[in-house]
Design brief:
This protein has helices at 6-18, 26-29, 44-56, 76-89, 125-135, 171-185, 198-206, 210-223, 258-271, 275-291, 333-349, 355-362, 428-447, 492-503, 519-535, 553-565, 578-586; strands at 39-41, 63-74, 95-100, 103-108, 145-151, 157-165, 249-256, 296-302, 319-325, 376-381, 389-393, 403-409, 413-420, 508-512, 515-518, 544-548, 568-572. It is an alpha+beta fold. The protein has a six-stranded mixed β-sheet. It has a four-stranded antiparallel β-sheet with strand order 5-6-2-11, with helices on both faces. Strand 3 (95-100) and strand 4 (103-108) form a beta hairpin. It is elongated. The model is unreliable at 26-34 and 450-491 (pLDDT under 50).
Length: 587
């Protein structure tokens, strides 16, 4: 029996519907089912994106771009017909947003003819980033997604560049669309039943029992009590703010090659854990050494695809949850891994609330430009495969937050570290990426002594991930995995002081006016002032901080707090003439 092509299938379906032998789906009728309102408050994941844009004022941070490359060229008419079928099937491709009474409302437009944007040349990463920079679709626009065909000389289509606002689709929803696009282009037929739509998720969220919501809020209120609300970089990251023509995001990529990735997966099975927990633990321990802080809050993406029907939903369900990570810095790697796995698993079991609701429960202090609990992000993208096509995500032109580690899983692990240039100096992304890569070798060696891999550092290919300030040449000899975790260079004063305070907390640190002050008491004063300085609206890493104090305990506290937050000290002697002090401040 000959299989119907996608075009013949839809033609037959339309004929049967016209004869009354097959009912139309709600999407084909251009209206919702009776239990689905025409206008509805958006799901919590989209609400988070909207609130983020309201605060940041930059829609590019929620742009999503992907280069869909076909293994064989197709006629442009076939591409258009397949996209038309997707738009009719999935409401997210016809949903528009508006605000009513300070609330984001969504509604679905009737199916309209899909019109492709202008054709473009085969893009590289730089071209994809440039498109998102100049043409990122907005949430409140009627057209919040756009597709540019990539044509060969004959006029046949060899791929698509799909740009959309993140509210249209998250990475998981994008894969749903890609799989169905692949099916249609290869002459297959999509299921006749209508998939779950985002508005149904919104209804389910609002039907959650109040007792369950209260329980989740209580969990997060207790869980985040006393947690560090913001990520404070240490003095070694102090730098001059970037020039206006410098890139906003410092990005660097490394690869964990397939042989090492397989060794990691094997070890994780033996330890009854997953690569996600293993790689997160390596990241946490690296940041503990970098910041000299025992406790960190790291945000991660939750797919929210566990409800029945959501696996085939095209839309945005992904949200963030903050993970409180506090393994003992000196603990063996396996102990730190088990600690993080236990704590994070409990957090994920309470991920029913969206990030906005978690923030409402925890009530962290809010300041412009410094998002609490989400300044560090760790994500791991699932492997992607669809017959006949490959997907390449477009790097964003702007940072999503201050520091991001995102890993794409294939046979290997491809990791990208992003740093906000207004917070960190150029080149830090490369330093962190290489150190994280070395620490994986160390963790493998510590957890499984029989595994010791000697590999060269993976340097990224040319593209937009290269930025001024990153190194451009590979080392002459391979880098051997160290037996101990590789340590970053540290600022000697604050590092030595903090280490001494840890080793001898009750020892005398200062004597002033006959009174002794222990290291613990001094460190407490330093941390308090450092937090106040870091939270000051006018303070940014690398800015000048004038200290006008006589020789005293307060002077020592101020100097150490300035070092810890990354400020540049300007010491003023109160005994100097006023005119001299004004000249110093004006210099």
């Amino acid at each position: 029996m000959k299989r119907l092509s996608a075009q013949d299938h839809h033609a037959l379906k339309a004929l049967l519907q016209k004869k009354g032998l097959l009912a139309k789906t709600p999407a084909e009728n251009g209206s919702a089912a009776n239990d689905q309102p025409p206008f509805w408050p958006v799901q919590s994941a989209v609400e988070r994106l909207w609130l983020q844009e309201c605060v940041d004022g930059d829609r590019r941070v929620n742009g999503l771009g992907v280069w869909v490359r076909f293994e064989q060229p197709y006629a442009l008419t076939s591409i258009t017909q397949a996209l038309q079928a997707l738009a009719e099937r999935h409401e997210t491709l016809r949903t528009v947003y508006e605000t009513r009474d300070d609330q984001l409302i969504a509604h679905v437009q009737p199916a309209a003819t899909v019109v492709l944007a202008a054709a473009i040349a085969t893009p590289d990463s730089a071209a994809l980033t440039a498109l998102l920079d100049t043409s990122s679709p907005g949430l409140m626009h009627d057209h919040n997604w756009r597709i540019h065909p990539v044509l060969e000389a004959s006029g046949r289509c060899i791929g698509l560049v799909w740009l959309m606002h993140h509210a249209v689709c998250d990475w998981f929803g994008l894969q749903v669309l890609a799989h169905e696009l692949s099916t249609l282009l290869q002459g297959g037929a999509l299921p006749d039943d209508s998939p779950m739509q985002p508005r149904r998720v919104s209804v389910l969220e609002r039907q959650r029992p109040a007792s369950q919501t209260d329980s989740l809020r209580a969990y997060w209120r207790t869980r985040l009590e006393g947690a560090p609300e913001r990520f404070a970089p240490p003095v070694m990251l102090a730098h001059t703010p970037p020039l206006t023509d410098e890139p906003a995001c410092d990005r660097f990529c490394v690869t964990i090659e397939p042989d090492k990735a397989q060794a990691l997966r094997t070890l994780c099975r033996q330890l009854k854990t997953t690569p996600w927990f293993f790689l997160l633990t390596v990241f946490v321990r690296l940041l503990q050494r970098l910041t000299l802080n025992n406790e960190l809050v790291i945000a991660t993406t939750i797919a929210h695809r566990d409800r029945p029907g959501t696996a085939g939903l095209a839309g945005c369900l992904s949200d963030l949850i903050p993970l409180r990570c506090d393994p003992a810095p000196d603990a063996p790697f396996i102990d730190a891994l088990r600690h993080i796995q236990a704590a994070v698993s409990t957090d994920m079991a309470h991920a029913g609330l969206g990030l906005r609701q978690i923030m409402d429960a925890a009530q962290p202090q809010r300041q412009p430009g410094k998002a609490p609990l989400t300044q560090i992000m760790f994500n791991m993208l699932p492997p992607f495969s669809a017959p006949g096509l490959t997907l390449t995500p477009a790097p964003l032109p702007v940072p999503r937050t201050d520091l991001v580690l995102e890993i794409a899983e294939h046979d290997s692990f491809s990791a990208t570290i992003e740093c906000r240039r207004s917070r960190f100096p150029a080149g830090l992304a490369q330093t962190l990426a290489h150190t994280w890569q070395h620490d994986i070798d160390s963790a493998l060696a510590a957890a499984a002594p029989g595994i010791h891999l000697v590999t060269p550092v993976a340097y990224p290919p040319a593209g937009p991930t290269r930025t001024p300030g990153t190194l451009t040449s590979a080392p002459a000899t391979p880098v051997i995995a160290p037996t101990e975790p590789a340590r970053l260079p540290v600022a000697r004063v604050i590092d030595l002081f903090t280490q001494q305070a840890r080793h001898t907390p009750d020892a005398t640190a200062l004597i002033a006016n006959g009174h002794a002050l222990s290291y613990t008491a001094l460190l407490t004063k330093v941390d308090l002032l450092a937090r106040q300085l870091n939270d000051h609206p006018a303070f940014t890493t690398g800015c000048r901080v004038a200290i006008w104090l006589p020789r005293s305990v307060e002077l020592v506290v101020a100097v150490l707090a300035c070092l810890k937050t990354g400020g540049v000290m300007m010491l003023l002697d109160p005994a100097h003439p006023e005119q001299r002090q004004r000249q110093i401040l004006a210099a």
